[in-house]
Amino acid sequence: DMGGALIQPMAANGVPVALTVTSDRRFGRVATWYPGPEGRFGAGQRAAHVLPVTDNEALDFVRSAGPSLFPADTLPTWAEHGVATTLLRLSQLVEEVPELVEIAVDPLLITMGGALALDVHVRVAPAPTGPVADLRRMS
Question: If you ran DSSP here, which 8-state letter would residue 72 be given?
Fold first, then answer.
């Protein structure tokens, strides 16, 4: 009578965060990083970075923003790398697919084995054109 069921394994322990990419008229694509299980719906701190980013920029951003988003010494180095790698991949994705105008990965669980997107929302629209679309592009 149930009509089927979806069974999936429990997610491993890790550091919950949220990453979003939105389009801003003045800055172009902007990634925002939110800490904790409340993610983008919480009232806590957040950090933003204009896209695209290189691997070094992504890691520098995560390392500089981490202390303001997380209590002292609660963001391990492996978690910093997981957030930076995911940020870099999202940056590359929206660079290559301009029709992706908004992405929200919330929650994103960072584990020692990598990042696990538990829920992703995507908004697709015609690719922006004009000066705003060309604000920042990788050569």
Answer: T
